[in-house]
UniProtKB/TrEMBL annotation:
<feature type="domain" description="Inner membrane component">
    <location>
        <begin position="4"/>
        <end position="53"/>
    </location>
</feature>
<feature type="transmembrane region" description="Helical">
    <location>
        <begin position="82"/>
        <end position="115"/>
    </location>
</feature>
<keyword id="KW-0812">Transmembrane</keyword>
<dbReference type="Pfam" id="PF03733">
    <property type="entry name" value="YccF"/>
</dbReference>
<keyword id="KW-0472">Membrane</keyword>
<dbReference type="InterPro" id="IPR052937">
    <property type="entry name" value="Inner_membrane_protein"/>
</dbReference>
<dbReference type="InterPro" id="IPR005185">
    <property type="entry name" value="YccF"/>
</dbReference>
<protein>
    <recommendedName>
        <fullName>Inner membrane component domain-containing protein</fullName>
    </recommendedName>
</protein>
<feature type="transmembrane region" description="Helical">
    <location>
        <begin position="12"/>
        <end position="45"/>
    </location>
</feature>
<keyword id="KW-1133">Transmembrane helix</keyword>
<dbReference type="GO" id="GO:0005886">
    <property type="term" value="C:plasma membrane"/>
</dbReference>
Amino acid sequence: MRTLGNIIWNIPFLGFVTAALVFLIGLLFVVTIIAAPIGLGLIQYSKFLLLPFSYDMVSKSEIDGDADKNILWQTYGFILKAVYVLFLGIPMVILTLVQIVCCFCSIIGIPVAIVMAKSLGTLLQPVGKVCVDHSVAQALLVEQGRSQLAARNKIERQ
């Protein structure tokens, strides 16, 4: 079923064109070196856009755990994210929303529109996101649920 969704996404809805455009924007950011974290996130997002029914976007901290970063790196990242959101993130989200509305115009485009709507957060803040196989994302969700359940049980026992 996922293969069929990916075929429908890439053939009639030209998903590969969207993926290529996002990849080129990401590559442009990587070349500037200053905005490389955003560029790498957009390249991961373009990988997701090639096969959106087979991959999921997850936060890097969900995979690696919370790594302590120094305060200068956090400040730089915050400034970089703010500039990206204002000048490129919001326009790209608006264009994607138009694409989602167009996909909802046909019955066959509804699943594609839902997948694109789920990925809007990544488009708005691509830094620290990684494209992983759907099964890996499901395993991360199960692990997260188990840890929350264990924490809840621990609180109830006290």
